[in-house]
Amino acid sequence: MSGSQAVLELDRVEYSYRRNTALRGVSLQLKPGEVVAVTGASGCGKSTLLHCAAGILTPDAGTIQVDGQDVAALREEERARLRRTKVGIVLQFGQLVPDLPLIDNVALPLLLDGHERGEAHLSAMNWLEQVGIADDADAVPTELSGGQTQRAAVARALVTGPSVVLADEPTGSLDSQGGQELLDVLLQAARYRGAALLMVTHDNLVASSADREIRLRDGLIQHEVSL
Ligand SMILES: Nc1ncnc2c1ncn2[C@@H]1O[C@H](COP(=O)(O)OP(=O)(O)OP(=O)(O)O)[C@@H](O)[C@H]1O
């Protein structure tokens, strides 16, 4: 695959937590609309890979490009803007602002990007409906279940119409029906809106909905399967 086609490209990414090496040179590319599942045993480096792709961790070596831009070469504010507008991130824990109503949590990326408040709230409400929690728009995350906050996190990740969606165990707090519904929302973002979707998952059903599965072992790609 040529680099110019990829909307997300990791090239020989390495990352260590002090002496604990989590990634030993991982390369992958995602094209627009492509869905890739990252799997592997606990501790193999899945979350570290996602956090590097999201810019939450800075790799020790290797490069990450989003929409053809080398993330490390950007100035801090440009990098923050790229992340805010082009990348939607669904983490396992804690990315919602605890005391902020869901509607404001979901609208936040748009407000930070200078969108007008009414318009931002309208888009946020639309996404809360799509993930099935419009009735909770005025509730704050601390009043909600793990599954409800996970739905809100997906709404917030998709509200800007990102080119790249990164999701760490996006259905982990939901029962199988709720998980399937939320997975469908993420897959639609890829299939109909052309976002590249990279999902970390332990769940074989989630992995089987991807176009490709990348299995990690000890910080390296053990194998890659087209599904
Ligand atoms: N904050 C940290 N400090 C030190 N070591 C860490 C830290 N976070 C992760 N590690 C180590 O890095 C390696 C990769 O961890 P990572 O969380 O990326 O794996 P994972 O595949 O996502 O695991 P899981 O499936 O259990 O979430 C593991 O050996 C882990 O113990």
UniProtKB/TrEMBL annotation:
UniProt entry tagged with the keyword Lipid metabolism: no
Organism, scientific name: Kribbella kalugense
A molecular function (GO) term: ATP binding
Protein name in the entry: Putative ABC transport system ATP-binding protein
Pfam family, one: ABC_tran
Organism superkingdom: Bacteria
Residue intervals of the ABC transporter domain: 8-227
Record keywords: ATP-binding, Nucleotide-binding, Transport
InterPro entries: AAA+_ATPase, ABC_transporter-like_ATP-bd, ABC_transpr_LolD-like, MacB-like_ATP-bd, P-loop_NTPase
GO cellular component: plasma membrane
